[in-house]
Amino acid sequence: MTDSVTSETEVLIVGSGPTGLTTAIELRRHGVDCRLIEKEDSSVETSRALAIQPRTLQAFEDMGVLDEVLEEGVRVTDATAYDDDESLFHLDMDNVRPPSPYPFIWFLPQNHTEQILGHRLNELGGEIEFDRELVGFGQWDDRVAATVRHREDGKEQTEEITANWLIGSDGAHSHVRETLGLELEGVTTEQEVLVADAKADWKLPNTEASIWFHEEGVVAVLPMPGEDLWRLFIDVTPIPQAERPDATIDVLQRLLRERTIHRNVTLQDAPWTSNFVANQRMVSRYRSGRVFLAGDSAHIHNPLGGLGMNLGIQDAYNLGWKLALVCGGDASDALLDTYEEERKPIAKTVLDKTGASGSVLVTANPLVKTIRNTALPRVLRSSRIQARILRAMTQLDDTYRGSSLAAVHVDSPLAGLLNSTVEREVRDLLEDSWRAPKAGERVLDGSCRYLNGTETSLYDEIHEQTGFVLLLFAGDGTAEVDSMVHLAEELTDFGGLELHQYVVISDDERDVSESPVVSVLVDEDGQLHSQYDAHVPTLYLVRPDDYVGFRSQPPHAASLTAYLSNRLHVGDDDREVDLR
Ligand SMILES: Cc1cc2nc3c(=O)[nH]c(=O)nc-3n(C[C@H](O)[C@H](O)[C@H](O)COP(=O)(O)OP(=O)(O)OC[C@H]3O[C@@H](n4cnc5c(N)ncnc54)[C@H](O)[C@@H]3O)c2cc1C
């Protein structure tokens, strides 16, 4: 017999992979009641995703898990491609410009990452509710009602959970997606790769990825935490489909001996093996009413570049604060449409790029193979091209510049002299030539200090807050310091938004008084003012996920208020102010 209970929560998250865990952490950090259900009765123990990209490390810092993540794992800074014993090209993370605060890719098995995220969730008062499977749901204007099945004392129980919002972070075979009638649209490719974690007795550098471009298929070997443990990717696409082998230890060892310089390598153990057939697919919509898709439920692609888990974590990092504002009644539901607006183009780009690199690297086509083995290494020797590839690979290039949440106010020197269309074009050109973080780009770090001399950094300050941060740069010299402090004090009505204000000054020779609502940061060597192109007074509004939402030079209070209401959908000021 099946017993049934009922319950309520603000947000129901389905699936406790990295995407669901991040969503739960972000909601709890922003004070939202949520539940995280998982159909399995314990966490998955296999390694799967290994690469944590710099962009995700930045999010982890904000989420409070970075130190734990960096305690275990392997720091990978380089990759070398070989043809037998000849080095074809070398990729070096030092070529990334501007440099990232994390100039490396961190290799940590996904089960460890999930464990760390799980601990953080526990610290925040949440937990994974195992053995709870979503079996159906319906949605109305004001709620979602979900049916969840679980076993208790050997008896099957059904729980009817009423929630305001439901997140489908339930992976590639998402039941949530299926119930919404959405499909992962795209292709299942011909590409097949043997994947394994294996112990090998070779002496390869453990800070770099080693790749062999062999006639019969590419081999990639990545270092893993654990003695002599390596992640192997062996392309079997050129082998006729019916003859492709399973990833057994004997097959892996034979292919490594045939395709790399390590003719006598011995694999002692392979704790995890898999045959991976690549799909390049994504959904057409991330939102349907009160239900959202995030992570693998919304997009899947080949494991080249190690981006799938990273994409899902960043989906959740984007959605979390927006949902929190809406749940708290501080923003209208329209803000939630910007989740798809911002995240879908990023997934599309990843699918396009991994699809293109997949068809070059993992191929049975003899012509493509020749180009791959001859022209590609030559192109990749250019450090400029390397820098571009590495920035894209490590997700440092991902921005929300085209988003409706990215806006600027710039006083044009030509105001009133030109008609409004031409003047707008002039302002667009000015924005494009802007060197500092543009609206929609991630903020940059830099050191500074408090008036009392205590050292700090912009990231430390920004990550201290869970809400928005307003940076008011006073510009070079001291002339505008008082007016910036006064402006900050006057800017008090943010329609209920949690917002912390900083006035950043480059010179504290004159007395500057701090007020209870404004912190003053001293940028002694002017580095922050330069990085932010703030030699004259400039305002930056930083979103909770560390992206610039709004920039105004000079600071323009009415435009900020208009941005909050018209773009962020916070408050009820809908005055017409020209934002770009
Ligand atoms: C070989 C391999 C290597 C990879 N390497 C990398 C890499 O280096 N870097 C990278 O970023 N990515 C990598 N990936 C991809 C990465 O593993 C996935 O993108 C990631 O797991 C997606 O996370 P998710 O939380 O969205 O989904 P999942 O991890 O699939 O989690 C979904 C969860 O939902 C649960 N669930 C499903 N249905 C229900 C239901 N009805 N009710 C309740 N719970 C449910 C599932 O049990 C599961 O726990 C790799 C993948 C593979 C296979």
Keywords:
580 residues; FAD/NAD(P)-binding domain; Glutaredoxin; 8-stranded mixed beta sheet; binds flavin-adenine dinucleotide
Summarize the structure.
This protein is α/β, with parallel strands linked by helices and 580 residues long. The chain contains 15 helices and 27 strands.
Instruction: Name the hetero compounds present.
Output: flavin-adenine dinucleotide
- Oligomeric nature of the chains: single chain
Spans of 5+ residues with little confidence (pLDDT < 50)?
none
Largest sheet: 8 strands, mixed
Classified by CATH, the class of the domain at 3-73 and 107-185 and 283-362 is Alpha Beta
Named at the architecture level, the CATH assignment of the domain at 3-73 and 107-185 and 283-362 is 3-Layer(bba) Sandwich
> Which percent band covers the strand fraction?
25-35%
Q: What fold name goes in the CATH topology slot of the domain at 3-73 and 107-185 and 283-362?
A: FAD/NAD(P)-binding domain
Helix content: 25-40%
Q: Whole-number radius of gyration?
A: 26 Å
User: Count of helical segments?
Assistant: 15
CATH superfamily of the domain at 3-73 and 107-185 and 283-362: FAD/NAD(P)-binding domain
Strand-pairing-aware structural class: alpha/beta
Distance between the termini: 61 Å
The count of β-strands is 27
* Mean pLDDT over the residues: 90
Family: Belongs to the PheA/TfdB FAD monooxygenase family.
Domain FAD-binding: 8-353
Keywords: FAD, Flavoprotein
InterPro entries: FAD-bd, FAD/NAD-bd_sf, RIFMO-like, Thioredoxin-like_sf
